[in-house]
Fold:
Amino acid sequence: MKHLLRRLRAELFATRADAALSLVLISLISLGAIGFLRWAFTQAQWAVVKVNSTLFAVGRYPVEQQWRLWLLTALLIAASGATWGLIRAHPRPDRTGVLWPRNDRLAVVLLSLIALALPLALDLSLAIAGRWWGLTVLLVVCRWLAGRFGARLSPAGQRLAALVWPVLYLVGMVLISGGLGLVTVSPSEWGGLMLTLLASSFAILLCFPIGVLLALGRRSDLPLLRWGSVLYIEFIRGAPLITLLFLGQNILGFLLPGGLAPDRIWRAAWVLTFFAAAYLAEAVRSGLAAVPRGQLEAARSLGLSYPKALQHVVLPQALRVALPAIVGQFISLLQDTTLLSLIGLLELLGTARTVMANPAFLGRNGEVYLTLALLFWGCCAALGLGSRALERRLDPHALPSAT
Amino acid sequence: MAPVPPADPSPSPLPAPKPPWWRDRRVVPWLVQAVVGLLVLLLIAFLLGNLVRNLTAAGLLLSWRWLQQPAGFDISESVLPFNAQLPYWRALAAGLVNTIRAVLVGLVGATLLGTLVGMASFSHNGLLRRLARVYVEVVRNIPLLLQLVFWYFVVFLTLPNGVAAIQLPGVVLAKSGLYIAGLGEGLRWMGPSLVNGVWQAPVRLSVEFGSLLTGLIVYSGAFIAEVVRGGIAAVPKGQWEAASSLGLNWFATLRRIVLPQSLRVIVPGLNTQYISLAKNSSLAVAVGYSDLYSVAETTLNQTGRAVEVILVLLAAYLTLDLLISALMNGLNRLVQIRER
Amino acid sequence: MFWNRTRSLGVSLLAAGLLAGCAGEDGGVQSQKLSTITGRGKLICGVEGKLPGFSFVGPDGKYLGLDVDVCKAVAAAVLGDPEKVEYRDLNSSERFAALASGEVDLLSRNTTMTLSRDAAGGNGLSFGPTTFYDGQGVLVPVASGIKDLKGLAGKPICVESGTTTELNLADRMREQNIPYTPLKFQTSDQTFAAYLGDRCVAVTSDRSQLAGKRTSFPNPDAHILLPVVMSKEPLTPATINGDPAWADAVRWIVYGLMQAEESGITQANVDAKLAEAKANTNQADLRRFLGVEGDFGKQLGLPPDFVVKAVKAAGNYGEIFDRNVGPASALKLDRGLNRQWKDGGLIYSPPFR
Structure:
């Protein structure tokens, strides 16, 4: 207690000017907080979020097919839990691994609380709330199982386990869009958070290889490749995303033979991909620049071919350096999906706008936008946290000097 | 498109004295380039061929004559005088000027805000420091478009109107806009006044412009704050200590010693932020401000000239970016330390 | 996944093109669009999507409205199933590009027919029969006390950008020399949100749209339509100029709906009428109309009984009107100009002969 008081004093009331500033700030913050709380609990009508929660989650996805999305969510959650557990079960050789570090215990408690409280706050029916609770249990169980028995997994098994994610992505695409015996659900019926996540994950996955190639192209000695990459990167980075989306929606139909242009959603997803690739290329390029030229030369002199030297020596180092910038790009890509609402697609923001066009919810902008802001903030902050954790895990300076 | 040499299908067991020509170190790069170049050319030819064919079928072959025709629509606020009888190119020009106006004011505002917040993160006051951190973390993780519609629909459109407007000496903030005193007709000083329930003042900013500006400044301000923070952090700690031992206070140290030195790190970072602010101004369309993009969209709709309109848009934004880059490069040369 | 679809689509397109090339000589119908649609098994229809009465998504996630019923009738006539429609929500600024680039087959999106949109040198659309005769109006709050356009002098007016509405507003205000500030938004949602947020003292749009939106306001009686009609707005479905056979097919399917009302054929009695026509060889008009005899369908590249299918799917024009925008609906619009010509309106189908 005494310690706390001393710290408070040092931080807030060190000098007279500081004290005055602190008092002003404290009063401003409390005024704002009181105003907000009063609004949130007396004036705001949260029904608009509660009633439309399904719409916000999956858009107009047919109700009788929604089990597919539940299944996909369950698979994703199981895979996440397992991955989480495996990471803890295989600590880096140079560090003492703890199966349940404090952060993990905290995360489990926090997730359980959210899973418990959110369905109740949204007035979900017991059946739906039950599913969420079940999913949370699934996550924890998978985390526990993988942590408990993951250490016995052979290196080959580990590599196989990593393959789960790409496979799951393909399975997810089939589950969402149909085919292979499932009823087709046309992209025009996708929406809400699902569309936001789908479009951003699609773009994130595909922009990565394109971006790396562009970055390599930009640093290549071959003038044609270099200038081609520079031209592409600078052109894309010079244009606002909205004009590129507009180009995709209005011009692509003219550029391809009649009827071959993909659906609007896919068009937008491709535009996002090619847009993000240019920015990613710049992030990767900064990473490549940080790898000393001698590394490549040393690898080549050891007899590695150029692609092999890139793959095994240069790129791993460059990507590790560029990791924060790359994740930064992914975060802004996730945010950029909101622009799809400007071209009439019903991702989260687009859905919000249609919901507010509904007479029953007219003028409920504050509630809806705040909810969306919270959602986006959560997703982006989680990505940021994940990136920092990954950075720590990959940090070479943590390696003992003698290996 | 990486410079991958073609894989040898059957590695020969004998060490060949001379590699086959397709593995020759001098030939491979050119081979790769030729193949890539050819593919790109083919792709472009394919796309352009389709474009011409489809446009011909739709009767919309590239033509710029429509630029001279009267636009027929009005623009809500325009720095350039504009009315519906003026041709399309004047409408686009008015939109461009509106964009530039938003970008210029936004740049100044975001720089001020970002610098203040960036400085605040080195304050002695823990509360101020954390507040700066919270601001950056909150704003950067919420999409700009969401922030813009929030400012417009939740903040500015709930302002009171008419008599109930927020009135300060010389300034009135109402739902219809921000009214500021200034030199009016006959060069007389005039304050805002209410005429027939409508506020009048020499200087008037619409709430659409206001929301766009607020959104851009708050969003870019957070990114600029990070740039400034990085720049200040790059200045060796000894500089702070030396300055304070000379008796300079915190603010003077920052302003006279640290900030000038940090500029050479800050300026290149600012360039990126300024360009993205310029591009982000195109989101004005969501809050009803008539910027270049919004005028272009209307133009497309009234003329059907999709390809021409997008070319105009791309050219305009690229030019704007290049201008900003050129200015910032000039500035960068000024602030870099001259090597002795 | 879409590659598969597009590839098969491309193949069928190619096949259709070849077939059309072969069949060109014997007077059969050459419509690339029609064969694309039948090959694909569904009609892609561009609609507004958020306009009560014309096209909007009901609580069960299904599209409803007058424009939507036109899509359904066309799908039923061409493919035999009114549900084989994929709706694309288009905002006003992307609709023509979507049609021109072939992204949608049919634009049934409260679009005003105008010379420049129709002309080959303009937007190059091909308009069908007008499905709703409308005019541009102005909606103001009762409390504002505004009675006419003059009352709007110097005030902000909300309008959706990229519409004829925007152009008419500029024209009318210029004629009467009234200064005003247009506040333009991309979508009608935003336009009305700004109006309801009191950002503008008036909102202008088609009168039917204003009436439709007003029903959804929290307090509909607090807003009135000014007694001015600023323009003629014939809302008309459109197709591309490049495929006259497809345009003809759409045109006569819609005329079929209008003729059905004139002939007293309804969704409920269409089967009975068909049986009657089959039984009675003397009713030549009816037999031809319903495809019992003659080859009207074949001439259009449609099944012989396309009218029966269309009416069975959506009802006749009067039923469509009543259900979506008429007294039975929330909009409660009067038939007005949209009465049959016999009742003094403008709905007039040319003879099916």
Observations:
- Residues 29 and 109 of chain C are 27 Å apart (CA to CA).
- Chain C has 14 helices and 14 strands.
